[in-house]
Amino acid sequence: MGESPPTTVILPTTTWTTACEEVADQLGQSDELLVVCDDDSDSIANRVDDLPSGVRLVFAGAPEGCSGKANAIAAGMCAAKRDRIVWTDDDFHHPPDWLAQLHADYEQNGPVTEIPFFVGRDPLSLLLEPIYAFGGTLGAYAGNIAWAGAVMFDRADLDEAAFLGDLRRSVSDDGILTEYLDVTPLRRTRLVPIGGTVRETAERHVRFTQIVQRHDPVGFAGMSVVAALSAIGALLFPLPAMVLLTLLQLGIYSAFEVRRWTFLLAYPATLAQVPLTMYAVARRTFVWGGRRYRWRGKFDVEVVGSG
Q1: Which tens digits make up the pLDDT trace of 157-178?
Q2: 16, 38, 203, 307 from 287: Cα distances, Å
Q3: Is the pLDDT of residue 279 over 90?
Q4: Which secondary structure element, helix H or strand E, spans residue 304, and what is its range?
Q5: Nearest Cα to 299, choosing from 169, 211, 162?
Q6: I need a surface site. Which of 45, 81, 146, 180 has the fewest CB within 10 A?
Q7: Is residue 305 scored above 90 in pLDDT?
Q8: 297 pairs with which residues across the strands?
């Protein structure tokens, strides 16, 4: 395999984390890591004069009409000096060969993305692990959905001007990217811790649900019907449903090489999914990253204050 092309890695964060260090250590001589925050009030700004070689700090400013994450990615894309682009997040482990693996996979497949598996840290997020394994892991893999936590592409792979225009008026960075980029999902899973408190998990679930609702309304309607029928079947035939649902989740966990006991929660998660979906759809606002958003339509986003 030849030398990888110069690459820009875009990582939105407000603090210098272990993930920042892990990615910085993998940069080639011509690569750059853009750490994107809001402004100089973020704690990471204190390190502006003490960053590793190849790392730059980018100030995105406060978002207007989009999420803070979408705003940060757009600012990073505009500041990037390279044509090979990687997006990533600061909340999971990046092994030493992470960037090299993405390059090797791109050379074989074109634009590629890894797949998340969300690991709960509070009672509600633990209960939701089987739901996210089905929708967020298997669904992303089967649906060719880009995950902003680990995706590589070239600028030439998409219509960048149109993409950035839509990104600056939406909530979901990976939802918009999926619409502009033909991506190959890799069956390589990254464990992403989520939650910590029930409130945090509830807010995240509202956001996840509304992302699917806005970006794939037909698919969302179909999934809602399937979820309702599954819950009804689970109530009418509890023992067979418990066995089948548990085996289904065990198969998903095994396919993505995830060894977690939470597949055993498949039955109660199925029962909880319907009321939680109704709650998420009914919510008019949600909190993400310290900001409260009102998402009226796919391209109708209002930042209504702090969380």
Answers
A1: 999 999 999 999 999 999 999 9
A2: 22, 17, 6, 5
A3: yes
A4: strand 300-306
A5: 169
A6: 81
A7: no
A8: 300
Overall pTM > 0.85: yes
Token pair 């600056």 is at which residue? 168
Render pLDDT for 192-202 as a digit per residue (tens, 0 to 9). 999 999 999 99
Q: How many CB atoms lie within 10 A of CB 42?
A: 16
Positive or negative CA dihedral for 93, 95, 98, 99? positive
Q: What is the pLDDT of residue 50?
A: 87
* Other C-beta atoms lying within 10 Å of the C-beta of residue 33: 25
Q: How far apart are CA 247 and CA 163, in angstroms?
A: 40
Single-letter amino acid, residue 214 = R
Q: In the numeric block, which tokens belong to residue 109? A: 């497949």
Residue entry with tokens 């298997």: 138
pLDDT, mean of residues 126-144: 96
Please say whether the beta carbons of 59 and 12 come within 8 A.
no
Residues in the chain: 307
Separation between Cα atoms, residue 267 and residue 172, nearest integer Å: 29
Q: How far apart are CA 133 and CA 101, in angstroms?
A: 23
Pick the closest to residue 37 from 87, 76, 91, 1 (CA basis).
76
Tell me, rounded to whole angstroms, the distance of Cα 254 from its chain centroid. Answer: 21
d(CA 221, CA 224) in angstroms, rounded, equals 5
Residue found under tokens 């548990």: 246
Is pLDDT above 60 for 54? Answer: yes
Q: Which amino acid is at 21?
A: E
Q: The tokens 């709650």 sit on which residue?
A: 279
CA 64 to chain centre: 21
Cβ atoms of residues 34 and 80 within 8 Å: yes
